[in-house]
Design brief:
The structure holds 2 protein chains of 2 kinds. Chain A contains 10 helices and no strands. By secondary structure, chain A is mostly helical. Classes of the chains: A mainly alpha, B alpha+beta.
Chain lengths: 223, 92
């Protein structure tokens, strides 16, 4: 697989799996307004995944659905951060903010790419991600405003920190780490990142559920 | 905090009340207003107003029945008829 397809799949898998995890809040988010807003963010992420898979599929001579749904669990390249299933609001917000912060750095780098298709798609995604970042930042601000919120956020970020460090490669990670340490008013330990390529046990359950409908019909069926 | 939303469907048109939602502050209100009233390109602009900032006026006493002040309060039909009769038939 060429380097570009590999990079596109990493990004696409991150967005698809995170979109799926975020969509698990649909109907049960803490309040109605947030339910709608967070579901909408989940849809955006899956939309980004689709555009990325389409570009990768052209390089690989396949189609977006096959890439999204037909690979073996060990072939997914998503970062373990997005695979975690916690369904707890502080952890959801912590992951959302950590991921969006890392993603902003990655998109910035991709926008400067010499490959016009990759740079163009990154710019297009970034125009939506701006609102995701605003949303994540608002929540962090809100949690930090009270002792209870701050305590919950701190606990969540501590749990997710090694995972968050695994989103970006060695080149981009220091920039990410600096931003997070600067923004959050609590200490974070020096830990080893959870590397991409390793998978959490709950990924399998997610893929099982996500591909259920597709597996129920013969390949190539039209919906 | 409850926010009321007024939406404009096309440039130049007036803003029409769209609905309301809860948000803890203006930043959240901005995000939620976009999601609820502009996500499907159904608005070109929004006014998002904290409900408590809206001054509501709903009592308009008219104790002395000065109905001639109202648009429909002054009937000219009878006067017009009278004037026509006074003037007689117009010359043919």
């Amino acid at each position: 697989m060429n380097e570009r397809a590999n990079l596109l799949l990493e990004l696409a898998d991150d967005e698809l799996i995170l979109g799926w995890r975020d969509s698990e809040w649909t109907g049960i988010a803490p309040f109605l307004e947030e339910d709608v807003a967070f579901s909408s963010i989940a849809q955006n992420e899956i939309g980004h995944a689709r555009a990325l898979y389409e570009l990768a599929a052209r390089d690989l001579g396949t189609d977006a659905d096959s890439l999204a749904f037909d690979r073996a669990p060990e072939d997914y390249r998503c970062t373990p951060l997005v695979e975690l299933r916690r369904l707890e609001w502080a952890r959801t917000i912590a992951r959302h903010w950590l991921y969006e912060t890392a993603d902003a750095i990655r998109l910035e780098a991709l926008k400067a790419s010499g490959d016009p298709e990759v740079a163009g798609l990154a710019a297009k995604m970034d125009r939506e991600e701006i609102y995701h970042r605003m949303h994540a930042e608002m929540w962090v601000e809100r949690l930090l405003a009270t002792d209870e919120g701050r305590g919950r956020l701190e606990e969540a970020v501590h749990e997710l920190w090694p995972y968050a460090l695994g989103v970006l490669d060695d080149g981009l990670r220091p920039g990410f780490e600096a931003i997070v340490r600067e923004r959050l008013p609590f200490e974070l330990p020096d830990v080893e990142p959870v590397p991409r390529g390793r998978h959490e046990v709950e990924l399998e359950g997610l893929l099982e559920e996500m591909t259920m409908v597709r597996r129920s019909a013969p390949a190539g069926a039209q919906w | 905090m409850i926010f009321e939303v007024f939406r404009q469907e096309r440039k130049g048109q007036g803003f029409v009340h769209g609905g309301s939602f809860h948000a803890p502050n203006r930043e959240f209100a901005d995000a939620y207003a976009r999601e609820f009233y502009a996500r499907r390109q159904e608005s070109v602009a929004l006014w998002v107003v904290p409900r408590e900032e809206i001054m509501e006026i709903d009592e308009f006493p008219d104790e002395f029945d000065l109905k001639y002040r109202r648009v429909d309060g002054y009937s000219i039909k009878a006067r017009l008829k009278e004037a026509r009769e006074r003037a007689g038939k117009p010359p043919s």
